[in-house]
């Protein structure tokens, strides 16, 4: 039996907090295949294994862990199965709710004050108090439409 584990970014949202963004668009995440496990099934066709997520993993938010398993018969034939489950790489998430932008372009104009709502939650989406958060807000200044992608962040 062998199992490959792959990680992909998943949009991070919590039903209790519509309108809040908990996903960091500035992080390009490409983890791909994470690990490969090999083992033997017991007499009932079961096995157990554990995986650990690297501490230096820079995820933009929640992830999906995909498990692709192959079970080989003595003849060399094999069965394959794929399961995907949500995976939270963080204990807490910081969400931001931005006001609507101007009617013409949907952007926040620099000559007006805007209220930005912040919210910290745990993995289940319950509001929690996190101490020591430092926040920086930047003005993005693009000159041309083709410069407006996330790669410029």
Percentage of residues in strands:
25-35%
List segments where confidence is low: pLDDT < 50 over at least 5 consecutive residues.
none
Describe the strand arrangement of the main beta sheet, using strand numbers: 2-1-3-4
Number of strands: 6
Account of the protein in words:
It is a single chain. The protein has no helices and six strands. The chain has strands at residues 2-9, 32-38, 63-72, 78-87, 92-97, 117-122. The chain has a four-stranded antiparallel beta sheet, with no helix packed on it. It has a two-stranded antiparallel ribbon with strand order 5-6. It is elongated, with a radius of gyration of 21 Å.
Descriptors:
mainly beta; 153 residues; 0% helix; 6 strands
In short:
The protein has strands at 2-9, 32-38, 63-72, 78-87, 92-97, 117-122. By secondary structure, it is mostly beta strands.
Draw up the topology in text.
Blueprint: E1 2-9, E2 32-38, E3 63-72, E4 78-87, E5 92-97, E6 117-122
Antiparallel strand pairs: 1-2, 1-3, 3-4, 5-6
